[in-house]
Amino acid sequence: MGQRMLLEVKNLEAGYGKKQILYDIALSVHEGEIVGLIGHNGAGKSTTLKSIFGLLTPFRGQVVYEGQDFTLQPPAVRLDAGIYHIPQEDFIFSDLTVKENLEMSFFTMRERSNFESRLSEVYTFFPVLTNRRNQLAGTLSGGERRMLGIGMGLLRRPKLVLVDEPSSGLAPVTFQNVAKIIQEINTGLGTAVVLVEQNVKVAFKLSQRVYVMKAGRMILEETGAKLLERKEWWDLF
């Protein structure tokens, strides 16, 4: 592939309490790569992202990031190391303005320099946030909130972004804008992305490689281009 390995998940098993959700999960992400993760609801996609980010402690297996074992590291350590998680649910501060949300994200970093230049970069990617910068985040539309969440991560210049269902609750046109921005961030900044997405066609178009999950297991790894060539996708699940 040429790029250096950024993330390796090895033989991962995880769940909630005693309920096991993931079985022997293995996936990899190279620097600057977009990797899609698809499957039916309940297949274990979000649980996989939570395990990578440290929100869940695996029953067994390893999460290796930049060659180091991060399996037991807390989310704060992973955040500082350059991993950013954008969950399906809103995680913005509704009673703060757009700019205050961005400031909160930036000033939780260890390295606090170049805020204005990074803020300008976010506004370039998301012009609507420039117009809304003094507006309370809780009054934004669903698409604008999703953009703000991505912008909060972008300020931190992550090496790897874990994006969970960016299309959820968004109108198709709004989602197309969000998908385009994810691709622009990847190509413009070299940020690697693990993309969980229910719109499989978009996932295939954006992703260099795609993993298919079923009932907590990986059942297929293929390039996005080859999956796009398929006439039917129902047999993937």
Low-confidence stretches: none
Question: Mind telling me the CATH superfamily name of the largest domain?
Answer: P-loop containing nucleotide triphosphate hydrolases
For the termini, the CA-CA separation is 27 Å
User: What is the arithmetic mean of pLDDT?
Assistant: 90
Structural summary, described in words:
With 237 residues, the protein is an alpha/beta fold. The chain has 2 domains: 5-82 and 159-236, 3-Layer(aba) Sandwich (Rossmann fold); 93-157, no CATH class. The protein contains 9 helices and 10 strands. The strands form 2 sheets. A 6-stranded mixed β-sheet has the order 6-7-8-3-9-10, sandwiched between helices. β7 (160-164), α7 and β8 (192-196) form a beta-alpha-beta unit. α3 packs parallel to α6 (142-154) and α6 packs parallel to α7 (172-189). The longest helix is centred in the C-terminal third of the chain and has 18 residues, at 172-189. The protein is globular and about 45 Å long. 41% of the residues are buried.
Topology of helices and strands:
Layout: E1 5-16, E2 19-30, E3 34-38, H1 45-53, E4 60-65, E5 68-69, H2 75-81, E6 83-86, H3 98-106, H4 115-125, H5 127-131, H6 142-154, E7 160-164, H7 172-189, E8 192-196, H8 200-206, E9 209-214, E10 217-223, H9 224-229
Parallel strand pairs: 3-8, 3-9, 6-7, 7-8
Antiparallel strand pairs: 1-2, 1-4, 4-5, 9-10
